[in-house]
Amino acid sequence: MEKVNIGLIGAGRIGRLHAMNLKYRVPGTRLFAVADVLEKSAQEIASQLGIPVVTGDYRMLLDNKDIDAVIICSSTDTHAQIITEAAQAGKNIFCEKPIALDIDQIDKALVGVKRAGMKLQIGFNRRFDPSFRKAKDLVKEGKIGSPHIVRITSRDPAPPPIEYIKVSGGIFLDMMIHDFDMIRFLLDDEVKELRAEGSCLVNPEISKYNDVDTALVTLQYKNGAWGTIDNSRKAVYGYDQRIEVFGSEGCIQVGNKKPTEVFWYGAEDTRSDKPLYFFLERYNESYLAEIKHFASCIREDKQPMVDGYDGKMAVIMGYAARESLASRKWVTVAEK
Amino acid sequence: MEKVNIGLIGAGRIGRLHAMNLKYRVPGTRLFAVADVLEKSAQEIASQLGIPVVTGDYRMLLDNKDIDAVIICSSTDTHAQIITEAAQAGKNIFCEKPIALDIDQIDKALVGVKRAGMKLQIGFNRRFDPSFRKAKDLVKEGKIGSPHIVRITSRDPAPPPIEYIKVSGGIFLDMMIHDFDMIRFLLDDEVKELRAEGSCLVNPEISKYNDVDTALVTLQYKNGAWGTIDNSRKAVYGYDQRIEVFGSEGCIQVGNKKPTEVFWYGAEDTRSDKPLYFFLERYNESYLAEIKHFASCIREDKQPMVDGYDGKMAVIMGYAARESLASRKWVTVAEK
Amino acid sequence: MEKVNIGLIGAGRIGRLHAMNLKYRVPGTRLFAVADVLEKSAQEIASQLGIPVVTGDYRMLLDNKDIDAVIICSSTDTHAQIITEAAQAGKNIFCEKPIALDIDQIDKALVGVKRAGMKLQIGFNRRFDPSFRKAKDLVKEGKIGSPHIVRITSRDPAPPPIEYIKVSGGIFLDMMIHDFDMIRFLLDDEVKELRAEGSCLVNPEISKYNDVDTALVTLQYKNGAWGTIDNSRKAVYGYDQRIEVFGSEGCIQVGNKKPTEVFWYGAEDTRSDKPLYFFLERYNESYLAEIKHFASCIREDKQPMVDGYDGKMAVIMGYAARESLASRKWVTVAEK
Amino acid sequence: MEKVNIGLIGAGRIGRLHAMNLKYRVPGTRLFAVADVLEKSAQEIASQLGIPVVTGDYRMLLDNKDIDAVIICSSTDTHAQIITEAAQAGKNIFCEKPIALDIDQIDKALVGVKRAGMKLQIGFNRRFDPSFRKAKDLVKEGKIGSPHIVRITSRDPAPPPIEYIKVSGGIFLDMMIHDFDMIRFLLDDEVKELRAEGSCLVNPEISKYNDVDTALVTLQYKNGAWGTIDNSRKAVYGYDQRIEVFGSEGCIQVGNKKPTEVFWYGAEDTRSDKPLYFFLERYNESYLAEIKHFASCIREDKQPMVDGYDGKMAVIMGYAARESLASRKWVTVAEK
User: Fold this and answer.
1) Mind listing the pLDDT tens digit for each residue in D27-76?
2) Which of C186, C261, C277, C285 to mutate to test the interface with A (most CBs of A within 10 A)?
3) Which one of B126, B135, D65, D66 is most buried, counting C-beta atoms within 10 A?
């Protein structure tokens, strides 16, 4: 196969990141077109990176026979519709998470993709982080025997603006959705049921929007293992992303990445760096790796490691958590 | 004050440990007498350590006017009764946890202690561990701002024999009781409500005795902070005892202690020690420090840092966890 | 200023690395031309990266008025000559280390650069590593008081081929030269005298070429501080690059970088990654940062942080070490 | 064999430490007598620990038929004479380092011990530290292949008083002597030659007594491996005691011990403890282990792991270092 011709839909922060990676660091691909409803954004990125086709209307990309695949980084409410149309147009699809906040919409999109026989990869980039991936591999190789307890800590350095909170779908669908996917990824097993708690300890204003900024979820896998996840919207010491898998024959821990390896011993104490602060730094490698994976799936006609079903299950878990937070009860995690 | 004359009641493993510490490492005390229902055990320890008074009946110690204080390490079902009698006899009391498995018995014992005006310290030795104590001090000094999430991981290297499991009161009253005390200690705050889950992932036989070997508790403090605890009866890599306190201005983590500081870099990976395996090694310093504290409370007429109320609250939390495990619901933690 | 137009001279491994960085990751520059005596190599790189001008003769780049600066990655024996000619042609110059193995040649080249008033930066990329840079900054800020002892450990994962050893100038001029530069960088001070020892512990064949594969240097700075450096051509566990600066008020240590943050606790021990194996991975960030620095020095008309004098002093130290190895005596480090 | 009856000669700081350990923590021994030229010191320790025999004259201990062994902690200038007499009197001997500052005196003492057929253990306690011992065991088991480079860092938290410096024999015989022993211990090999440098960077007054406070030694083992040692009289961050053994198949590092396992993440950095400050804390376990070893050697009629020859070689190395510091040349390490 020749170079994979890619069209980018959505030229915001994440779109730009994928564009940079595609342009400079993913051999075998060609960033051929960019679309954004704010055509100016699309033009900016196009002139900066030398992208031949620029448009305000993503449908022009779908109609373009030279484009093999699209990367969807537009606003969440447009994902499902674009996926459906893109599949129909015969494009392979990479879509940022979540597919949609509505399960029916997700189902329709997935049916469309299946019918068209196209590939769909969802942007759960953390699966491609070298540390998390190694952790999962060790589990899979049986290095810790049967898993008993999975712990995930995931804390952002600072909360997003209230304007964003309002439309985010809430902490479970916006932030913990990554951890729900990680939970499934680490053990290759589904969650049977979960329960969630949370409150606003960072910023009380968030509660006005029926959301929380500090959340804990306890869950049980179908195979009997337990999981716990904690999220906070604000960790002053940086982006805190740790996992632990404890099993019958051992335990795997993944710690945070730090900007330097410097230790300073003084008369009072020993000091070292805090974790990397910004998610784009922390997950720099995984954003690149997921796009390389997508490109190689197209070229080698393989199924992407994170597919539409994964995208759907994480959303289902998010809703289960929301329901549990309200009811204070265990909620079964099930496809409807 | 002269040396504090101490009588030891119960010459089992923990009794022996306290005896060794008293004899050799706690200045200002004198291990004066030892009682055990198995008089032979008492005699053994007495001859080994040169303890003048030996008996099969603890009441002989209570009647002995030369004895200032008793250390109760007999079986749990005798604690409350001995506390009551010892207080009445004018002895200060150090008692291993738990005071009793019955709240009414605990209450009676505490009333007796109060009426007699004696001191009572409960053996939650982990409060005296240098690492946990420093963590608590940092929290108290406001170094992490307002606490939001407390995480405790507490895993034993190997499960006790089934015979012990049968009479232990269950994982929440036997093992997690230490973590319940630590939870209260770390934030100087009470728990409002909690919920518990668990199952037998280590040894299915344990379930026959209506107990679990893997347990998770989620709880909320009165001040709004969240807590999570996980316990396992078996961590092949040793005694896993970690805590984390996350707050608005930072995070404190306490890791495990290792036997050596050796790192070995080879062609495959880097290797280092696993954590200390045995609780007597891991908490060696804290067992000593708690007895020193007890002795100094007597000499300086201070209230012990871990008193009867602390002993009671941990048991109340244990019952709340048992109830929640059965009901799958939140249970309020309250003194009756 | 417009984009800085850059010509690359030498299309080998390091040349390719700089080319990739310039093309994709250094804004404000344009990789305009490439020259290599093996014209095919130049063509390859040019077609891969879309470089307009390709030639087998670097003089064509010097004659090209559109080129502002050259990056010299040709073989060491050509550096001094090309520097001289490039300066005369009014080009700013980035040159890989060492400038030359002959001090007179170095002097001539530096005179030429000075006379022409051009900028010259030498490729001691480790100065741009975030960890080493932070270490130096902490020293400069007085965080450890007066420096007393500097220790550098620098070990390669595997020795180069014997063919390379023959022409390398020996371990002191080929490998430890980086550490000599680091020694000067860390304290902003010159070395007064040094002594060197070494032998062939890795591969006895190396001794045939009057070289060693394991070397230790002890040195004293002009301000009185001591330094020690050890080098080995083979560390099976990867690329071992550590420094330590010990002073009157504290100590700074820089450890190795590892590919992941995974820790695996098993019944035997705890395992984690070995250090990164390959120098291009380890110093990935510093190679990029040095070229960005060069570009910004040109745009903002600043002196590069690593200049010709630095390049010369490291070579002088290398010769002093060779002399000391032979004489087993202290050798004064001095410009002739 | 019955309990080993031990007489302590010298009731200063180290004598007291051994006395405490013998009394409380070394089963199978009996601290039977204590002698000190300051009889009051002996009496103090005797009454505190209930030692039956007290005297101002160590000869009374040597004459006492009930005493099996003596522990010599008197001032250095008396060691050799007491060893000789004790051996003649049929006592096994534990002697603090160094045996003497005069090689002839050492030789005479060792001859006396040999002739009498008694055991002699020298107090190089660091060999008994669990971390260093594990490092040595790993080397011995071939885990790092052939050793190439040994690095020892040994820094005291604060310099001793000038009065002590005057009579100490200098940094090489007083402080680095421990590292010389460790160098021999780690590889089970002798040093062929060494060279030393040093100066007064901590306190210039020390130079008045022909001594240095900062010292570096480079050495070569008979088998060809290299070693480097650095010492400083003052590390503000505590007692810095690290070793590294680098070999053909790997590398072993031993780091410092810290008082707690607490890590505190704040908005600025991550903080943790500095190393333990005081040598009695750092080497607490090794002081106990060496005396247990001595007792077991007597009971089981084994040769102590650190004998008179070891004691002599460390002194010989100390003198070689002094000579090299003066001559600035390599000095051969050889028994005369």
Assistant:
1) 899 999 999 999 999 999 999 999 999 999 999 999 999 999 999 999 99
2) C261
3) B135
Per-residue confidence of chain B (336 residues) as pLDDT tens digits? Answer: 579 999 999 999 999 999 999 998 898 999 999 999 999 999 999 999 999 999 999 999 999 999 999 999 999 999 999 999 999 999 999 999 999 999 999 999 999 999 999 999 999 999 999 999 999 999 999 999 999 999 999 999 999 999 999 999 999 999 999 999 999 999 999 999 999 999 999 999 999 999 999 999 999 999 999 999 999 999 999 999 999 999 999 999 999 999 999 999 999 999 999 999 888 888 999 999 999 999 999 999 999 999 999 999 999 999 999 999 999 999 999 986
Strand order through the sheet with D69-72: D53-55, D29-35, D4-9, D69-72, D92-95, D120-122
**Strands D53-55, D29-35: pairing kind:** parallel
Pairing type for strands D262-266 and C250-254 reads unpaired
- State the pTM of this model: 0.95
Question: Does the beta-carbon distance from B266 to D256 stay under 8 Å?
Answer: no
Percent helix, strand and coil across chain C, each rounded to 5?
A: 40, 25, 35
- Assign residue D298 a region (left: φ > 0; alpha: ψ between -120 and 50; beta: otherwise): alpha
Q: List, for residues A259-282, the tens digit of each pLDDT value.
A: 999 999 999 999 999 999 888 888
**CB < 8 Å to C267, chain B:** 236-237, 274
Question: Å from C165 to nearest chain A CA?
Answer: 31
H or E segment and range at residue B214:
strand B214-221
The span from the CA of C148 to the CA of B1, in Å, is 52
Task: Report how far residue D30's alpha carbon sits from residue D19's, in angstroms, rounded to the nearest whole number.
Answer: 10
Q: CA A14, A20, A25, A26 torsion: positive or negative? A: positive
Rounded to whole angstroms, the Cα distance separating C37 from C57 reads: 6
CA nearest B324 in A: which residue? Answer: A329
Q: Check residue B150 and give left, alpha or beta (phi > 0: left; psi -120 to 50: alpha).
A: beta
- The one-letter amino acid at B163: E
Task: Confirm or reject contact between A262 and chain D (CB < 8 A).
Answer: no
The number of residues in chain C equals 336
Rounded Cα distance between A47 and A54, Å, is 9
Q: Do residues A84 and A19 make contact, with C-beta atoms less than 8 angstroms apart?
A: no
Residue B113 tokens read as 């202690």
| Helix-helix angle C176-187:C130-140, to 10 degrees | 30
Torsion of CA C162, C163, C164, C167, to 10 degrees: 110
Q: How many CA atoms lie within 13 A of D9 on its CB side?
A: 28
Cβ proximity of C232 and C217 under 8 Å:
no
List CB contacts (< 8 A) between A218 and chain B: 197, 216, 218, 228
Query: Which are the contacts of A48, defined by CB distance < 8 A and separation ≥ 6?
Result: none
- One-letter amino acid at D245 equals V
Report long-range pairs for C77-83 (Cβ below 8 Å, ≥24 apart): C77/C101, C79/C109, C80/C105, C80/C106, C80/C108, C80/C109, C81/C109, C82/C9, C82/C58, C83/C109, C83/C112, C83/C113, C83/C120
**DSSP 8-state code for residue B205:** G
Distance CA D87, CA D118 (A): 6
> How many angstroms separate the CA atoms of B256 and B142, rounded?
24
Please state, in angstroms and rounded to a whole number, the distance separating the CA atoms of residues C315 and C178.
Answer: 10
Tell which of C262, C269, C277, C282 to mutate to test the A interface (max A CBs under 10 Å).
C262
D269/A273 CB distance under 8 A: yes
CA distance A255 to A245: 12
Give the residue from B103, B144, B180 showing the smallest Cα distance to B253.
B144
Q: Is C153 on the interface with B (CB under 8 A)?
A: no
